[in-house]
């Protein structure tokens, strides 16, 4: 059910076809042969792991300041993506550098974290370039002008999210069968590029309602359409529900090892006005959604997640962590 596409220099046409098929059926595709070497990929995963190894007191200094900024550190239990128990993960978010409204929060560059900022920005640039190419391919696939989407994404209010799912006792899942590593959700933005390590546990919901494993494929990146693209395309594309559960293959022992992933949520510029793409409607009354700016839509969706987290937050049965101070450093919701 999952399509796969291969990136070539002249990748646009065949990729466009595969992406289009993938987004209209499974909503998820594997993209292979991306212009990133295995060593570069390993390096960014190591960079992420180095950050998460910092003492909690350090990481909390980088806590997200507000729901609007959506930049910074979020500790285990602070987010609840689905209806299940709070997620067992910690994350660190970055947006575009030089955003006049909200600055990125950078950890101090010492010890293991020397060159952290440079590495993250390079990776952000790589993802942003790849997303631009993919949006071109999607436009061609839809039969509209190749640069259509790129005009809305001249800088792009993207989000880069490092994720760490800590090692967790198998008992945690046995004791609570609604426990997941990340709850079932759809992504908010245009497209997501997802890099996962080899641990497994990512699942994608099929149209018939069952969850299927989206097993790791070495050096591939998963691409999925987010809610904004679904809305933008008048639901021609699907934004598919996915989640992260315990790994399908248990390697013995009492616990599941840590899992790392990196998600790049590619978005239009915050102020870009998003209305149904030409060709996805005939008359105005065919439009399923009213126009909105990308930024307003994003905030609306973020608030829903944050409210769910703060209203229903319950303790996770894990050894003590920083606790469940839902919400953010500054903003009351
Ligand atoms: O960790 C993963 O594989 C999925 C993460 C995800 O879906 C998200 O952050 O939106
Ligand atoms: Fe997601």
Automatic annotation (TrEMBL):
Q: Which UniProt keywords apply?
A: Iron, Metal-binding, Oxidoreductase
Instruction: Report which superkingdom the organism of origin falls in.
Output: Eukaryota
Q: Does the keyword DNA repair apply?
A: no
SUPFAM superfamilies in UniProt: Clavaminate synthase-like
Q: Which InterPro entries match?
A: DIOX_N, IPNS-like_FE2OG_OXY, IPNS-like_sf, Iron_ascorbate_oxido_reductase, Oxoglu/Fe-dep_dioxygenase_dom
Fe2OG dioxygenase domain: residues covered: 156-268
PROSITE patterns in the record = FE2OG_OXY
Q: Please give the Pfam families that the UniProt record associates with this protein.
A: 2OG-FeII_Oxy, DIOX_N
Q: Which PANTHER family match?
A: 2-OXOGLUTARATE (2OG) AND FE(II)-DEPENDENT OXYGENASE SUPERFAMILY PROTEIN-RELATED (PTHR47990)
Record-stated family: Belongs to the iron/ascorbate-dependent oxidoreductase family.
Give the protein's recorded name: Fe2OG dioxygenase domain-containing protein
* Species in which this protein is naturally found: Aspergillus cavernicola
